[in-house]
Amino acid sequence: MLKFIKSAKRKDEFPKGLKQVVFVGRSNVGKSSLLNAVYNQKIAYVGKRPGMTKMLNFFEVDERYLVVDVPGYGFANRSKNEIVEFAAMMDDFFSDADSIALVVMIIDCRHKPTQDDIAMIEYLRYHHLKVLVVCNKTDKVSGNELHKNVRMIADNLNIDVRYMIPTSALNKKGINEIKTYIDTCTE
Ligand SMILES: Nc1nc2c(ncn2[C@@H]2O[C@H](COP(=O)(O)OP(=O)(O)OP(=O)(O)O)[C@@H](O)[C@H]2O)c(=O)[nH]1
Ligand SMILES: [Mg+2]
Questions:
Q1: Measuring CA to CA, which of 76, 78, 152, 169 is 20 to 30 A from 47?
Q2: How confident is the model over 46-70, as pLDDT tens digits?
Q3: pTM given for the model
Q4: Where do the structural domains in the chain lie, given as residue ranges?
């Protein structure tokens, strides 16, 4: 069971004490949709327009760990001010890296990772965080294309394909694999 705890922007508001699993990725890749699919609940807000989520949303799973839905990055219509604010919020959040059990980084399986994606994975590496790369929206590509794209994404992010899962929040492909991976990281 996923239970909403709070939305927060500032360090002193972030909940403490439990391990955290964090969902990050470019705006509109399907972070909130995947979160809902993994926990089989309609709890995280799925936006009709990109860039709707602006705060960190904290959920609790069976009093075991927290799941954090992070606002999407790389959204073109953000102001300079919002970009600076987002960076500061991320720095505040990731400065407590010890409590983070796993970062689930979501990529659109149709496209080459953007500069923002590469910056994000480098940032996560810099903080020595465990990262699972999820290639979402697989329902939009053919099997052949998917295979090719997963390799291309792995190369671009310099990550082993073993730490990558192709998914679809629409037809639920890969959802159980994400769940299993999260479980092993939060035991
Ligand atoms: N076809 C398809 N559509 C998806 C999938 N996952 C998400 N979507 C759609 O993509 C749009 C964005 O989904 P969200 O879950 O809100 O994406 P987000 O990454 O949380 O977006 P922000 O919170 O704005 O950063 C919605 O219209 C979803 O229905 C998927 O696997 N396949
Ligand atoms: Mg969202």
A1: 152
A2: 766 655 567 899 999 999 999 999 9
A3: 0.94
A4: 2-186
Q: Is 137 in the pocket of ligand 1 (CB under 6 A)?
A: yes
Give the end-to-end CA distance of the chain in Å, rounded to a whole number.
16
Looking at residue 26, what DSSP letter applies? B
Residue that is written with structure tokens 């809902």 in the block: 36
pLDDT of 142 reads 96
**SS3 assignment, position 147:** helix
Q: Whose CA is nearest to atom 9 of ligand 1?
A: 30
For residue 102, give the H/E element and its range: strand 100-108
In terms of phi and psi (left: phi > 0; alpha: psi -120 to 50; beta: otherwise), the region of 177 is alpha
Q: What is the CATH number of domain 2-186?
A: 3.40.50.300
| Distance from C-alpha of 82 to C-alpha of 94, rounded to nearest angstrom | 18
For residue 129 and ligand 1, the question of a CB distance below 6 A is answered with no
DSSP class of residue 161? G
Specify the residue with its C-alpha closest to ligand 1, atom 7: 30
